[in-house]
Amino acid sequence: MASAKIQKTIARQQEKISEGQFYEAHQQLRVIASRYVKSENWDAAIDLLYGGALALLKAGQGGSGGDLGIFLVDVLGKNGKGVGAAEKSKLLTVLRAFPEREPTKKRFVTEMITWSSKVGDYELGDPELHHVAGSIFAEECEPYDAERHLALGTADSPEALARCEYEWYTQDESHTAALYAARAIFPYLLVGNLRSANKAHLIFTSRLNSSREKSLTVQEVSSKSSDMRVYPVLPLLNFLGLLLLAIQRGSSDLYKQLAKHYAPHVKEVGVWDDALAQIGEMYFGIRIPRQGNPLFDMMGSMMGFGGGSSSPKPKPKKAVDVPPPPAADLD
Questions:
Q1: From 11's CA, which of 18, 95, 197, 212 has a CA 20 to 30 Å away?
Q2: Helix %, strand %, coil % for the chain, to 5?
Q3: Rounded to two decimals, what is the model's pTM?
Q4: Which alpha helices (DSSP H) does 82-213 contain, by range?
Q5: pLDDT average, residue stretch 95-102
């Protein structure tokens, strides 16, 4: 809990904020926090920045509040503490206080994840921080940002990602279902998380069956070792289900048969080749030529981590443009 002195300082600045003196409050909070940092009074600086960021964000001042939030992350880094429950609680409280679609939020999230990767136990960032950030982006219909964080989140993240992709899919043509399902499945496979990939597949197809496509023909196929839903007019969705089955069985022969059988449909998509090549190598030992780190290069290209012209643009109404498959003889 903040000291009485810090509480009084925040209360004075809260009065300025209530009077609409946002700039003055922001600048004074920054100056006072900088003094605490200079004297290495870390706790005081953290409590002041935390309280000040919340006050400004709740007043709708996303830029100023976000700036103090980023300053808070910087101080946590200088303080040298690990990623503890108290630190995460403060950061997530600040994150949830951001106004919807506030541009500074994305920078705050980036700084927060980077901090956790440097001082925490997870090289790619703390899973809980990823999960909360990704869930917030999903609620705000920011699927690219949701994907990049939920793919590295917790056991609860596959459900959030699958629901996000399904909602995105409902704005597109019915025959594109597999393209959105793949965006919930491939990221988990590419980080070696088969359980989450299976969960995402199950949730997406369950929503497909119950919500949008009530007239969709579905065949239940059962064997001694597995049960599977088959969609006669959605061959690529069948491919994804069989791909997960092949990985579970560790069968490179089954994978090769699938790749050959569904090659014309995969070729139509045109964006799965890199992901499938990497999956083939990771799970079935089918080596591919590589330079640098293809896992992260591929994920960056697919999910928008990288920069340049290859980065996805803001969410379109229609994300893909693939001709509908012929209705006959597709399994």
A1: 95
A2: 65, 0, 30
A3: 0.82
A4: 85-97, 104-119, 127-139, 143-150, 157-169, 177-190, 194-207
A5: 94
